[in-house]
């Protein structure tokens, strides 16, 4: 096949984006673990590791711009590079949100509402991330649609979780004194932010699936 | 055949025939005034043979008026052969035979009553190597008019040079030889010569491939400007050039087959045919 160097650069880009996603998935798992266990060391590792993800993002961004500038990709190759360029942004954002989970874990109480199973929500996001990246790596259009549908489940679970928090908040009347109220409010806010961030991780996985579908068959149906 | 096929300039100059006052049968049937959607040129099942060898196979293509249509494909795919069918330059090759219809403004240019010289006044041509005559800049432009027995005026020469984006660079040296100009200027002089008789269509066969990037950019800008007044059909090996300057692209592949013809954006973002995808992404060819 002609243009061997170009073809190997395209293959490298795909492999490197998948590598980045695996690292991001690890960080997300660690963030969720920190939330569950309150392990500060794990939380700190996620936070400190964000710089590494940012560097991966910058390196991949350069790979994409170099390919565009030097190889003038067209058609399927162009869509692949354009999709990769967008997907690495979503991966970087997921890593930022995993960092947030680490921050929440460090900041204080995370098991305020035992009825809400944050790990269940987190597991859904991990699966969505893995499925969206499989769609990209294997050019699997069905997986793209599956991720989009899965997001409806996640949104519903997050809504139920938020409702649970609000309901308990309304019923809660055992606080005594301003300090205690303030501390409780902080915990509640953090808990709601945790739910929101998990929901957003799902959204970023849908973005990845949407870009993969565009890459596979020039179909922008799932983009927004 | 009235073509001066012993003239070495003949294959490099569309308006080289000294036959004036020709029948304008083809030209007068042109598409001016017709709907924009109507193609000014339309080939229908064009086959071309060079002796026993088939160079084009059943090529059907509508070419829209006042747009740039690019023809791309690997060497030997027939794209230049197709270009030369449009103004019957293949007549100059004795072994060439053309079957099928090539409509210009609805009239088959291969009909018996069409004078190819008159046809080439309406369909000018520019070639890969700039080929100004060893004459003054002025006379190079005027030549295109004189061979068509058209009036030569300073205004027409100036207008043609302005149309070719060359006037400002040469207006003070019109009496100097066209050969004194740079390669890029020479090519624009050839474009001025081609548009001086006010054709409807300008065919270009690799017009920038012998030029440096700056001269190429000027030609590309010029091609876009020309499409405001003329229909431009360009053969190019440079796919990025086709992507940059054309509205429609036809992709010829080995065997003289037009595999895909569509909006340029569609061809370069999401072609229908895997063979076209493989060709434009460099996987073969």
Provide a descriptive summary of the structure in words:
The complex is a heterodimer of chains A (224) and B (285). With 224 residues, chain A is mostly helical. Helix content of chain A is 85%, strand content 0%. The longest helix of chain A is centred in the C-terminal third of the chain and has 40 residues. Chain A is elongated. The two termini of chain A are 37 Å apart. Chain B is of the alpha/beta class. In chain B, the strands form two sheets. Chain B has a six-stranded mixed beta sheet with strand order 6-7-8-3-9-10, with helices on both faces. A four-stranded antiparallel beta sheet of chain B has the order 2-1-4-5. In chain B, helix 4 runs parallel beside helix 7, helix 5 crosses helix 7 and helix 7 packs parallel to helix 8. Chains A and B meet through helix 4 of A and helix 9, helix 10 and helix 11 of B.
When the domains of chain A are counted, the total is 1
Order of helices and strands of chain A: HHHHHHH
Helix/strand structural class of chain A: mainly alpha
Strand content of chain B: 15-25%
- What's the end-to-end separation of chain A, in Å? 37 Å
Strand and helix order of chain B: HEEEHEEHEHHHHEHEHEEHH
Q: Which percent bin holds the helix content of chain A? A: over 70%
Q: Judging from the principal axes of the Cα atoms, what is the shape of chain A?
A: elongated
Q: Regarding CATH, which class of chain A?
A: Mainly Alpha
Major pleated sheet of chain B = 6 strands, mixed
- Characterize the overall form of chain B: globular
Low-confidence stretches of chain B: 1-36
CATH topology of chain A: Methane Monooxygenase Hydroxylase, Chain G, domain 1
- Alpha-beta content class of chain B: alpha/beta
Which CATH architecture of chain A? Up-down Bundle
C-alpha Rg of chain B (nearest Å): 18 Å
**Which residues of chain A sit in consecutive blocks of at least 5 with pLDDT less than 50?**
none
Q: Please, what is the average pLDDT of chain A?
A: 93
CATH superfamily grouping of chain A: Phosphate transport system protein phou homolog 2, domain 2
> How would you sum up the major sheet of chain A?
none
- Level of helix content of chain B? 25-40%
């Amino acid at each position: 096949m002609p243009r061997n160097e170009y073809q190997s650069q395209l293959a490298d880009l795909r492999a490197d984006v998948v590598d980045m996603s695996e690292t991001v998935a690890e960080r997300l798992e660690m963030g969720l673990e920190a939330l569950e266990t309150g392990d500060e060391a794990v939380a700190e590792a996620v936070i400190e590791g964000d710089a590494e993800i940012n560097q991966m993002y910058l390196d991949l961004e350069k790979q994409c711009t170099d390919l565009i500038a030097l190889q003038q990709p067209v058609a399927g190759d162009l869509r692949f590079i354009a999709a990769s360029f967008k997907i690495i942004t979503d991966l970087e954002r997921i890593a930022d949100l995993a960092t947030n989970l680490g921050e929440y874990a460090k900041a204080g109480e995370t098991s305020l509402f035992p009825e809400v199973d944050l790990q269940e929500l987190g597991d859904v996001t991990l699966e969505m991330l893995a499925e969206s990246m499989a769609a990209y790596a294997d050019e699997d259009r069905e997986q793209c649609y599956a991720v989009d549908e899965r997001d409806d489940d996640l949104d519903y679970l997050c809504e139920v979780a938020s409702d649970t928090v609000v309901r308990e908040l309304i019923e809660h009347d055992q606080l005594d004194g301003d300090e205690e109220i303030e501390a409780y409010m902080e915990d509640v806010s953090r808990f709601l932010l945790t739910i929101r961030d998990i929901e957003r991780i799902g959204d970023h996985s849908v973005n990845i699936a949407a870009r993969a579908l565009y890459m596979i068959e020039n179909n922008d149906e799932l983009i927004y | 055949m009235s073509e001066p096929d012993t003239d070495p300039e003949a294959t490099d100059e569309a308006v080289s025939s000294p036959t004036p006052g020709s029948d304008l049968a083809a030209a007068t049937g042109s598409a001016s005034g017709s709907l924009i959607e109507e193609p000014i040129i339309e080939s229908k099942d064009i086959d071309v043979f060079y002796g026993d060898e088939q160079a084009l196979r059943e090529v059907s293509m509508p070419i829209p008026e006042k747009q740039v249509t690019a023809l791309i494909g690997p060497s030997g795919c027939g794209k230049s052969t197709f270009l030369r069918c449009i103004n019957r330059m293949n007549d100059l090759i004795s072994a060439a035979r053309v079957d099928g219809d090539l409509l210009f403004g609805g009239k088959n240019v291969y009909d018996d009553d069409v004078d190819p010289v008159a046809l080439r006044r309406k369909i000018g041509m520019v070639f890969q190597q700039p080929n100004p005559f060893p004459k003054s800049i002025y006379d190079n432009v005027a030549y295109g008019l004189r061979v068509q027995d058209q009036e030569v005026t300073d205004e027409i020469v100036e207008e043609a040079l302005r149309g070719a984006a060359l006037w400002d660079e040469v207006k003070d040296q019109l009496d100097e030889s066209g050969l004194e100009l740079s390669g890029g200027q020479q090519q624009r002089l050839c474009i001025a010569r081609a548009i001086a008789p006010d054709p409807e269509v300008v065919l270009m066969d690799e017009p920038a491939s012998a030029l440096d990037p700056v001269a190429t950019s000027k030609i590309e800008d010029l091609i876009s400007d020309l499409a405001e007044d003329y229909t431009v059909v360009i053969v190019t090996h440079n796919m990025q050039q086709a992507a940059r300057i054309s509205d429609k692209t036809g992709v010829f592949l080995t065997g003289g087959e037009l595999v895909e013809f569509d909006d340029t954006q569609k061809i370069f973002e999401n072609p229908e045919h895997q063979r076209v995808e493989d060709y434009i992404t460099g996987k073969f060819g």
